[in-house]
């Protein structure tokens, strides 16, 4: 078998006994099973998770599924990596061992014991949070002990005291686990709890503020009742607190992620979107848009489109000098989702403002839309692009000046077929009026924007 192993492209061969018998890859966390065979932890766990009950090498039954870390072999592998550093091989890090069920049970009992000293309970909660952050497996183990039922009473143990360190530490651990719909509804139905969380949005500690926003987002997203969600989003200071979190420096990347998730969840409630506008959401969304990672940028653009559906939102976004150029630039740049939301926001802005129309044309939107309608983007995005093209029909360059138009000549992607499309659009006798565009856009509220079932 050693002769059948292929050498690395780097010119060095991995010793046979360093390879996992299942994956044939260099083991990063070697563990030994009850048959005496050693495997990489991830490989053997996957083997057992798929229903196998025998040892992959010996085919003997696995009477005990305990995985014993092979520390000696792991150190030999690490030494070999260091010795072959010249070939570009990096030393594998020492893996963190999974949490033991007995330890987790003990820590949970200690943290929930009202008779235990506060410092002891805090220590247990912090250790649990460290274990939960280490791996998904640890989080699953901790969740199996009904951790949410233990933490929720601690988080909301004292509404009157916003400085309870025990409550804050419990909150930091709680947001690492998903809540059941019944748990979200129970929290959301008690406005005193929501007001408590909204006060924490202005806490001196950035971590407490972010964790509070995280729980608010979990609760709003996990509650199906429109009435309850409307009550939550109707609390004025929630929008101010969430937007302040988005203003935190880039050194707090988790703040950006949690902040936009919370703002997006709140803006799904149409009746209170004006509160987001009054709190300054349009300005901060445009200013921070370049700082978001892909999935967060998609969520930010979806939020922008939602806010552009109300007059106050359109007016606020149109007043920001960077809104239209940034939305035009994003088309076809980030993802299909981002393109769809950017096109929808532009459609709303240009439907409300001739100034936005002029800005969009100056920013090169005609070229972007032509490329979009010919791309493999979503049908919804193409429909929005087509409506926007019709809306901007008076801004199309004349046929005899097409070749001299900077908007078209500067793009390598625009060919003769684009010119034919331009001509086709200009020949159309029917075009959408302002009111028709608004009707078409608003009709997508429950279909195109089915955010409830969308996973970002």
From TrEMBL:
It is an enzyme of class 2 (transferase). CDD domains: RING-Ubox_PUB (cd16664). It comes from the Eukaryota. It catalyses: S-ubiquitinyl-[E2 ubiquitin-conjugating enzyme]-L-cysteine + [acceptor protein]-L-lysine = [E2 ubiquitin-conjugating enzyme]-L-cysteine + N(6)-ubiquitinyl-[acceptor protein]-L-lysine. Functions as an E3 ubiquitin ligase. This is U-box domain-containing protein. Coiled coil: none annotated. PANTHER family: U-BOX DOMAIN-CONTAINING PROTEIN 26, WDSAM1 PROTEIN. Its EC number is 2.3.2.27. Residues 13-87 form the U-box domain. GO terms for molecular function: ubiquitin protein ligase activity. Keywords: Transferase, Ubl conjugation pathway. One of its GO terms (biological process) is protein ubiquitination. SMART domains: Ubox. Pathway: Protein modification; protein ubiquitination. The keyword Repeat does not apply. SUPFAM superfamilies: ARM repeat, RING/U-box.
